Amino acid sequence: MKRQSFVKGMLGFAALGGLTSVASLGKLLNEEDYTYPVLFIGHGSPMNGIENNHFSRQWKSEVDHLPNPKVVLVISAHWLTNGTYVTAMEHPQTIHDFGGFPDELFTVQYPAPGSPEFAQQTKDLVKSTTVHLDHEWGLDHGTWTVVRHMYPDADIPVLQLSIDYNKPAAYHYALAQELKELRKKGVLIIGSGNMVHNLRMVAWEKLNTPNFGFDWAIEANETFNKLILDRNHQPLIDYQKLGQFAQLAIPTPDHYFPMIYSLGLSDSKDEISIFNNELVGGSLNMTSVRFG
Q: Do the Cβ atoms of 191 and 259 come closer than 8 Å?
């Protein structure tokens, strides 16, 4: 294998907006007539992918008033690699990268097309590192469980950008800044993870208790939110220095790094809104952010 995946499960061409050629794709991707927002989505349990709950309804609400993007690009907590990759196949597979859930979840297919042309454009845009074109991955549950609520017809190309798990938060923040101009080229970019994500400390008996969080998780959620709203990104990049609450909230950075990408993609002029601001099972949060 050219790369190693660290993905772990949780415990236990459809019409391309009228595009008919590579030339027309390139033309549309270079039209700078609208700046798309950047989203960070706290995706939580894979079950949110098939449940019509207040979290998934809000995901859809965040894009309902937007013009349909030409491409959706997702940085998912569940594609961790050595090096940076972007999916470049015509038809990405739906990946069921979890265990212990109902059979109904494993039968879900989200047959959105890919876009090798856009993957190449993404590769060419990044200068600080080599972005490799991937033909093996697909859409993991950090992507399809969210995007299928937003665009249920699966008629918009969806790509994933991997997270180089050997690199620190500062690297991911800087790489994200190189991708900013995509927001003006018809691309909706989504970071998908969870800012507070400690599966080992979940209070399973409290999963159905609304907004239940341990003291350290509440402190982490409130601190992260304030820093985001204040546009004070450096402490979030240097999260290891924030204290014990951050160490408990981020025992491993896989679910946290997608938020760092969303920060790096944001602009100082973006309006910032926080939604789905809830804790789950004591040690997880669903808090999500919209920039722009």
A: yes
What is 209-240 written as a DSSP string? Answer: STT-B-HHHHHHHHHHHHHHHTT-HHHHHTGG
pLDDT bucket at 179, cuts 50 / 70 / 90: very high
* Nearby residues of 120 by Cβ (< 8 Å), 6 or more positions away: 88, 133
> Does residue 167 register a pLDDT over 80?
yes
Confidence of residue 32 (pLDDT cuts 50, 70, 90): low
CA dist 89 and 136 (Å) reads 8
Per-residue exposure over 61-95, b if at least 16 CB sit within 10 Å of its own CB, e if not: ebbeeeeebbbbbbbbbbbbbbbbbbbbbeebbbb
User: Above pLDDT 70, what percent of the chain?
Assistant: 89
- Tell how far CA 70 is from the center of its chain: 17
